[in-house]
Amino acid sequence: MKLSVVMSVYNGERFLREALESILSQTFADFEFIIINDGSKDGSLGIIKKHPDPRMKVISRENRGLIYSLNEGIGSAQGEYIARMDADDISLPNRLEEQVRFLDDHPDVWLCGSWAELIDEKGEKQGELKTPIGVRNVKKSFFWHNPFIHPSVIFRKKAVRELGGYNPKFRHVEDYELWSRLMKRHPADNLPLFLIQYRILPQSVTRQFNFRMRWGGLKVRLKYLFS
C-alpha cells in the first residue's frame, strides 16, 4: 500500500462529515484511512459509521490525547507514506495525488507540506497561508517559525518511526519538534499549491495556547541548534 491517512477525532462532529468526505473523494485512491476516535462524547463515532468505506480503519477507545493518537496511527499504518488530516479541515480533491507524486519524484525529500486556504466556521474563505518553498528556504525559515501546516503534511513512514514519532513532552508544538528531528537527517519541502482548507476557529488550539506555543517553539529551536 502506498499511503496511510491518519486522523484523530475528539468531539469533532461539527465539521467531521466534510473532513471525511474530502479524503474519501480524493483523486488518488491507493490509501488506507486510519481514524482514531479519541474518546469522543458527542456524535463523532456515529458520523464515522455513516461513511462505510473499505479503506477506513477505525480505532475507538477512551481519550488519551492527540499525541498518543497520532503515534498510535503511525504505529498501525501500512502505507509507505503517511498523510496527516484534522477533523475540522478539508483536503482538496487532488491533495494526495499531488503530494504522493512529489515524493515519488523526489526520493531525497522525506516530508512534504503545502499551502492552505484559510476558512472560517461557515466554510467561507478568510485568506491564504503560503509556506516557504524550496529545501533551502524551508530550512532557513525553521529558525523563525514552523515552516509547515501540520494537517497539510505527508511524510515517509520509515523516517518518523525511526525517530520514535511525536514527543509528548512538546504538547501544542509536537509537530514542530518532530520536524526539527526529521530535518536534521533529511530534506523537507512544501508544494506551492493550495491543497487544504485550514479552518480557523475561536476555540482552536492556536488561539487558546498562543503563549505556550510561542514558548514551546523557542524550546524547539534551541533544541535544534544545540542538540
From TrEMBL:
GO terms for molecular function: glycosyltransferase activity. Keywords: Glycosyltransferase, Transferase. Residues 4-163 form the Glycosyltransferase 2-like domain. Gene3D superfamilies: Spore Coat Polysaccharide Biosynthesis Protein SpsA, Chain A. SUPFAM superfamilies: Nucleotide-diphospho-sugar transferases. It holds the Pfam family Glycos_transf_2. Transmembrane segments: none annotated. InterPro entries: Glyco_trans_2-like, Glycosyltransf_2, Nucleotide-diphossugar_trans. Belongs to the glycosyltransferase 2 family. This is Glycosyltransferase 2-like domain-containing protein. It comes from Candidatus Wolfebacteria bacterium GWA1_42_9.
